[in-house]
Request: fold
Amino acid sequence: MPDKRSPHILNTSANLLGLCFIVLTSIKVAKMGDVSIIDETTAIAIVLFMTSCILSFLAMRRENDTGNNHLEKIADILFLSGLVVLFLTTMIVTFNIVE
Reply:
């Protein structure tokens, strides 16, 4: 029986994607141009979470179980990468690495 992680990945990636959009929009509205590393890492996280969402959605829609497992694994790796990028961004903000 294949592991059905796609709905969980899709749900969580979509939520974190929305969070990244809020962060990026807040930086742009506040005109905080000097924190370009934060908006750049947030943009990277957006790309990772969006790709993870798309791949997990495609894995749910496909009929082929072998292809589903492959798409799920890629979506899982991209999701984890997005989490790492968000963690690093949070550490940058928390420890005031960017002034």
Summary: Helices lie at 6-29, 36-61, 65-94.
